[in-house]
Write a structure and sequence with these properties.
This protein has 2 domains: about 5-110, Jelly Rolls, CATH 2.60.120; about 130-265, Jelly Rolls (Sandwich). About 30% of the residues lie in helices and about 30% in strands. The protein is built from 9 helices and 16 strands. A hairpin with an 8-residue loop joins strand 12 (about 190-195) and strand 13 (about 205-210).
């Protein structure tokens, strides 16, 4: 889909279609990595398979017949899916879409979309209650470890992390050492080196910047570090020590959360 048309579709979703209306403008373009858009010409037929749960289907433009279990279940246009998207049957069931008009549709993994919106709401709540926590969460919100944690544990995770200054040339972790902490860069840049079994010297395998994380693999596996991370500038990192990391991973739910976060969780579909 051309960028101009995509921008128009995203703008339409954010203004008129729930739950996209809950997303901040800054977060809107992240939706592209969470959903898929499809253009269908009048008369075109397309088969679609849902996910593990009931995926969302939005008709952004045009009109569709939606067929599953051998019968036409609905005829949907934009007005029909603005407040209540079509819920597709879960995999392995398939649905057949028949375009009555030239159409643009949006297929969204329900769980991923709901989680993205809830994350966004929690981060915005932090902007009003704890500006420093908001700044950090905004930086590292895409870290896989924190994206996979239940929302209820995120605030606790960040409050248990400690800020540490690091210098250019400093090796924050070293290959072969025991894994004793998880790190997130909040300022500065670094390089990642790895030495293979038959290598004479380490080889650079990656660059890291603000918001990037490292050190998780050794904590989870219990094995030694598989890489060395060396700072290429002065900076700061957030450090979550091994005990705190294990506590968070082994205790997925916490007993209490900030009241404003609890309100957001309820409004966006999380159960307390």
């Amino acid at each position: 889909m051309m960028s101009v048309k995509l921008d128009r579709v995203l703008d339409n979703l954010s203004r008129n279609f729930q739950p996209f209306t809950l997303l901040s403008r800054e977060r809107l373009h992240e939706v592209v990595n969470t959903v898929r858009f499809m253009e269908m010409r009048q008369g075109e037929i397309f088969q679609i398979t849902g996910g593990k749960g009931h995926d969302y289907l939005f008709v952004v433009e045009g009109q569709l017949e939606i067929i599953y279990s051998g019968a036409i279940k609905s005829v949907a246009g934009p007005d029909d899916t603005r407040k209540h998207p079509v819920l597709l049957p879960p995999s392995p069931s398939t649905s057949t879409l028949v375009a009555r008009q030239n159409s643009i549709i949006c297929h969204a993994d329900r769980d991923l979309l709901d989680k993205l919106i809830s994350w966004d709401e929690v981060v915005r709540t932090m902007e009003d209650t704890d500006i420093e926590l908001y700044r950090v969460m905004e930086q590292v919100r895409n870290s896989l470890v924190f994206r996979r944690l239940p929302l209820e544990t995120v605030e606790m995770a960040f409050k248990r992390m400690k800020c540490q200054d690091v210098k250019k040339g400093q090796e924050v972790i070293r290959q072969g050492e025991a894994g004793d902490a998880y790190y997130i860069i909040t300022a500065g840049t670094a390089e990642v080196f790895q030495r293979g079994l038959y290598d004479d010297k380490p080889h650079k395998i990656a660059d890291l910047k603000d918001g990037d994380a490292f050190g998780c693999e050794a904590l989870i596996s219990g094995k030694t570090r598989s890489e060395t991370v060396r700072m290429t500038s002065d900076g700061t990192v957030l450090v979550l020590d091994k005990q705190a990391f294990e506590d968070l991973i082994s205790t997925p739910l916490i007993k209490s959360v900030h009241p404003s976060i609890a309100k957001t969780m309820l409004e966006t579909g999380y159960s307390l």
